[in-house]
Amino acid sequence: MEVNFQTSFNARNLDPKEVAEKFIFSPSFDKLKNNCHTVILGARGCGKTTLMKMLTLPALHNWNNPNAKKIIDEIPFYAVYIPTDISWILKEESFKNYDDDDIFKKSISKFAVNTNLFESLCDTFYNILKYELTNSEEEKEFELCMNLIERWKLKKSTVPKLQYIKTALQKRRDDVSQKIPKAIFNRTERQLIDEDYFELDYKTSVTTVTTIFNRIYNIPTSKKMALCFDELEFAPAWLKKELYERLRSTDQNLLFKLSSSPLLPKEVEEIMKSESGASFGNDFEAIKMWELQSNNEFPRKIIESLLVSKSNFENLESFFGSNIRYIKKLESYTKDSIYIKEIKELQSKDEMFRDFLIKNSINPINPIPVNEDQKSSIYRKMKPIVYFRNYFLRENRINGKPILKPNKKYIELYSGLEVLINITDGNPRWLIGLINSILNNNNGNRVENNVQYDEIIKVSNRFINFIKNTPITLKDSKSLTTEKFIDKIGNYFQNELLGYKFQPEPISSFTFDLNNSIDYENIIEKGLLQGAFILVGSEKEIYDFEINNKRFKLSNLFYPRYKLPLRMNKTIKLSSIFTNTFENNKPNLFNEYEN
């Protein structure tokens, strides 16, 4: 049976204890636990939800880490985890096609948000009593709950226990939900928002009940409450605006931890760019997950933990082997070295490459670098390009046409530890799925390259199908699809690498310059959220509100499809890709063979 990575390795489907079982400490978690407002930005599957849930007490107290106790003591707040519920928007959208009663729509949406937040706060209070105040008296819980019943306008008959408070909130939400269908078509039914609990404000309510809780249980004034709103890209616009405004909150007892997609919504832009808007470094810290994922240490730790849990092996290099095309240690440039042999072989059949060597004062027959400058400026840069062209090319003559080898599989190119570490761009969900698949299909002490390759291709295909089948609304381009859009870019990159002309640094990223192209913008924005595209060189202290003039790369999981090395090189304007017909660089090696 094929495993669905989107559900099997999705922290949203796990309770905090389950998240803690396999959690690996990372620089992003180290930043998130600091005593400040924090915004986490990243694509789906990048680990945002895992980080948020790990801040909660059930996760921290069930985390099998030698430093867990120290970290718990260091965290200066109790985390209230609040997952975005799609009903927050649906309750607004229910009225979209019927009238313009914005007050009623927003009241219903706010009620839904308040209820979810209050339920999460009940969970947090319960967990504080369970894990940190284990000998608390029932009289104190009674006093707390009587206050909650009063402050949250619950029925006076509600039993003053936290579990019953939460049940009362759920019942009230269900009662309101049953009345909404009538209110959609009948305005006279909308007096339900006259109920006093519709006047509740989560911001003041949380502060009030937290103060009461701290007084009753004698919580130190230094201990704060952190509202952890997860997946805000799915939240209603009014809530996004409120929360980003709150990043300038002066409430000393309340923190905000927010997670969202890489591109912030337009409705937040005006707030963040205003004179009174929150500023990076002064009011909040930002965690851009794609920047931290460029570090190989974290994915390496994930692979190591999975390997140790399923085998007796601990040495990753011994178990998975290495890929000489990506090893960053000092390269040997002797005449008998593998790399020099590759150069010799390629120049003998690729006249454009031979021309390149001659123009750069390199002897094609004996291509040994003459100094360190040549090594750094030419040899190291072109290394994966040489390996890939030599692997695929049978012959490429001046005034001729490239002829390729009839390779069906590219095992040597997409296997080895270096490839496994980088192929998912550090996305934990896809990486965990890939490594588990490899380990489940391995019977020996060392996993063979063909097993790695087969599973990499399977995961790559799953990812491509996931992106292809992600719903997206396009307005103007009837024939345009996300798949066609990505194919155009991927084929251009492939032609740069494997086309007639040898490019020592082929283009492998693009800058979006198609202004007023709404459909293209929608594809990029949706792709950013799903991980199909990755922002490159985004400044840490600056939020990204639009894609114009931003640089992007394709996810590495697309690279096997387009026969690309896991390497970042030069960039080009997207408009140039979409107007290019390959006139200046003859059709690539696969045009006839694959089509």
In what order do the strands lie side by side in the largest sheet?
Answer: 2-3-4-1-5
The structural domain count equals 3
Total of DSSP H or I helical runs spanning 4+ residues: 27
Strand content: 5-15%
Count of individual beta strands: 11
The major pleated sheet works out as:
5 strands, parallel
Computed structural class: alpha/beta
- Poorly predicted parts: 582-595
Shape: elongated
The radius of gyration over CA amounts to: 28 Å
Which whole number gives the mean pLDDT? 87
Distance between the termini: 31 Å
Describe this entry's structure for a reader.
With 595 residues, the chain is of the alpha/beta class. It has three domains: 36-292, no CATH class; 323-404, no CATH class; 473-595, no CATH class. It has 27 helices and eleven strands. The protein has helices at 5-8, 16-21, 27-32, 48-54, 57-61, 68-74, 87-93, 102-131, 138-151, 162-185, 202-217, 237-245, 266-273, 289-292, 297-310, 316-320, 338-349, 351-359, 372-392, 417-422, 428-440, 449-468, 482-498, 518-530, 559-562, 574-579, 591-594, and strands spanning 37-41, 77-83, 224-230, 254-260, 284-288, 393-395, 403-404, 509-511, 533-536, 551-554, 571-573. The strands form three sheets. The protein has a five-stranded parallel beta sheet. The chain has a four-stranded mixed beta sheet with strand order 9-10-8-11. Strands 6-7 form a two-stranded antiparallel sheet. It is elongated and about 90 Å long. Mean pLDDT is 87; it is low at 582-595.
